[in-house]
Amino acid sequence: MYSYFFRPIFLVCTLCVSLPAETQGENKVKTIVVQNILAPSVLSSARIEGVIGQKLNNCIANGVMAKKFELYTVPFKDKLDDGGGFTGEFWGKWFTSAALAYGYQPSTANRNILDQSVAALLKTQDPDGRISSYSRGQDLGAWDIWGRKYVILGLIAHYDQTGDKESLKAACRATDALIEIAGPGKKKITETGLRIIGSLSSCSVLEPVVLVYQRSGDRKYLDFATYMVKLWSEANDYNPKGMRLIENATAGIDPILIAAPKGYEMMSCYEGLCELYRVTGDKKLLNAVIKFGKSVLKKEIMIVGSGSSGELWCDGANRQTEILEQPMETCFTVTWMKLCYQLLQLTGDPVWADQIEVSLYNALMGAMIDEGKWWAYFSPLTGERMPSPLQVPVCNSSCCVANGPRGMLITPGWSVMKGKSGPVINLYSKGTWVQKLGTGTELKITQETGYPENKDILIHIDLPKTERFTISLRIPAWNKNAKLIVNDEQIKCVPGTYSRIERNWKKGDEIRLEMDLRGRIIRAPGSVNDLAVMRGPIVLALDNRMVKAENYNLWILPQGTQWQHKDELGGLKYVLPAPCLTADSPQQYIELTPSAAKPSNVWMAFEVPFLYRHTHFFDHKQVNLVMCDYASAGNQYSEKNMFRVWIPQPLFMNGVFPEKTWKILYRDEPRPGIPSK
After folding, report:
1. Are the beta carbons of 444 and 462 closer than 8 angstroms?
2. Helices and strands (DSSP H and E) totals, the chain
């Protein structure tokens, strides 16, 4: 068996569920030819505290492990999806979250939930291995393979966490049943599912098929995977030019112009390519995913770390200042985070960890409602927040409610990863992490910090003997004036890289990292007239609980703005207009003063200076408005609680908060509320 560092951690889009110690010796199949540059943490070795730790605990206790999991098997038993439903996805989405939760908190109660749910699911498995929410005769219908995909992912997750060979056997049999109807000589998988999304949902089954091969070692599953990918390049009834996911990504084609513009499902297909790369070593697969990820980041990801409008690619980076219909689906947010996590493991490039952090603190935390009991379906940048509608009452769930926890629960895996020469710290949060070095020595890392609320991070090193290894610390790209000190020695650090500190480490060593949490003015990619404010990874927003709509106009007032006056004007202060920011403009900063004038359920709030030009071009003055963190903005989920991120120049305060945006987001449907049960 290869070492921990060289053993990839799998599970539903590589969701960092490691094999438990008692099963590692049993898994003798060697199918991996590409080694992760960064390996995820063993989940149970992390104990995250602070704000993120509390979010994790709430997500598990109030959400994932509080669900009536028996409801998720009803679609398979009663074939609820005949005619085109998608409830077959719920069990696997929920179960992969539950598996991550058990990995992080491996209690007997959590284990029982996993075992009982799998036992209930397997009662619905047909003798030929088929598990589907569609009746026979409706195989390959709208969301049939999509639902089967999540079933297999869930069964693999159970095997990874418990070593239960029956779950692996069931996953293999479920895959066999799929090959029987969609393998070579059968119906092309690229001509199944919904025509309008070009079979992306069906083709995303690539990921679990490769995971089954990784664990079983049975070559037929790898053959089926490579056959599917070959079909992507061929013309078919749904895509006359072929899906061309690899070719178009490699060529730098914008995501919106590849195959069909369904973001979530397309990213899932590229996750499958990551797993296929691990077992083939075909570099063109990884290159395609890297180019695709960079293209998504440039063209589609909005300031809070998510994208989409109506679940589709929408050139979102350039259009994010608009009031979009159904923006930033939570399933999109989660899948983007998981794709970044895949790329972080395979490339070791901290840009992907930077992106996960922004998504976590903004888009994802903002979508988690009522201490983890429910989730938003869509998350706007202007207007009001709405909870997800109850899509399927029989399951008491919706797609994003089942899926949201998966994004939150990958956090322990990427928080402190394992590099070839030592630990790699990505997440700065109060907590402790235990990691075995290559020599077998047990290292304990303890962080004391209130980051990102405050700038200081203190890291304690605890190990039984002095040993030489490297500790790598992520220095975010925005962190221009970071200070890094080991004991009394200052270490150079470069934004957008890992600071790699190789030395003889001993018990009692300390690392001090000071983050540059100055307020940064961000220019909208698609509009020089719209600005936003970020502090570290946190996006700030105006909220009508702290800012009132009044009849005047304001301009953002950058730090270092020069006040000007002429004697003939009586010494009256004024500020002359400045050129609009461009992509080449130097970073502008803005003074942020912590504010206590905030509701109790708002995490962070700051007074932000604006310029009030109330008489012609002189006698100007500074006016401070309170802005809070995006995740807290609008968190009453009420028509009366409105917010905005992007600030046009000037900001017309009498129309600062567009009203009733839920009617745009949900059209003619009733405004959704959080279910009482």
Report:
1. yes
2. 20, 25
Q: What pLDDT does residue 671 have?
A: 84
* DSSP assigned state of 603: -
Give the tens place of pLDDT for each residue, 445-470: 999 999 999 999 999 999 999 999 99
Q: Which amino acid is at 107?
A: S
Indicate yes or no: pTM above 0.90: yes
171 near 155, Cβ under 8 Å? yes
Tell me the CATH number of domain 29-417, given options 1.10.760.10, 1.20.1260.10, 1.50.10.10, 3.40.50.720: 1.50.10.10
Q: Is 309 left (phi over 0), alpha (psi -120 to 50) or beta?
A: beta
Specify the DSSP element, H or E, that contains 346.
helix 330-347
Tokens of residue 471, six digits: 């500790």
State the Cα–Cα distance between residues 107 and 109, nearest whole angstrom. 5
Q: Answer for the pair 341, 414: CB distance below 8 angstroms, yes or no.
A: yes
Q: What single letter denotes the amino acid at residue 551? A: N
The string of pLDDT tens digits covering residues 516-575 is: 999 999 999 998 899 999 999 999 999 999 999 888 899 999 999 988 876 666 667 888
Q: Do the beta carbons of residue 444 and residue 432 sit within 8 Å?
A: yes
**Ordered DSSP codes for 258-283:** SSS-BHHHHHHHHHHHHHHHHHH--H
Question: What is the C-alpha separation between 664 and 208, in angstroms, rounded?
Answer: 37
Which pLDDT score, from 0 to 100, does residue 28 have?
A: 52
Specify the pLDDT at position 127. Answer: 97
3-state DSSP assignment of residue 627: strand
- Contact between 307 and 289 (Cβ < 8 Å): no
Question: Do 535 and 476 contact (CB within 8 A), yes or no?
Answer: no
Other CB atoms within a 10 A radius of the CB of residue 162 amount to 20
User: Smallest Cα–Cα separation from 121: which of 83, 159, 71?
Assistant: 71
pLDDT attached to residue 23? 35
At residue 474, φ and ψ (nearest 5 deg) are -75, 125
**Is the dihedral angle over the CA atoms 482, 485, 489, 493 positive or is it negative?**
negative
The reply to whether domains 29-417 and 421-451+455-514 share a CATH topology is: no
Q: Are strands 538-543 and 527-535 parallel, antiparallel or unpaired?
A: antiparallel
Q: Which residue has the tokens 């490297």?
A: 470
- Calculate helix-pair angle for 108-122, 88-104, nearest 10 degrees: 160
Assigned token pair, 516: 């540059």
Spelled out in words, what is the top-level CATH class assigned to the domain 421-451+455-514?
mainly beta
DSSP summary character for residue 233: T
| Element at 250 (helix H, strand E) | helix 245-250
Q: What is the 3-state secondary structure (H, E, C) of 371-404?
A: HHCEEECCCCCEEECCECCCCEHHHCECHHHHHH
CB within 8 Å of 590: residues ≥ 6 apart: 518, 519, 520, 521, 533, 556, 557, 558, 559, 608, 609
Q: Give the Cα separation of 537 and 545 in Å (integer).
A: 23
Domain boundaries, the chain: 29-417, 421-451+455-514, 519-666
Res 673: pLDDT: 83
Helix (H) / strand (E) containing 206: helix 206-216
Pairing of β 442-449 and β 456-462: antiparallel
Per DSSP, the three-state class of 569 is helix
Where would I find the H helices in 12-143?
21-24, 50-58, 74-78, 88-104, 108-122
Residue segments in the chain with a per-residue pLDDT below the cut of 50? 1-27
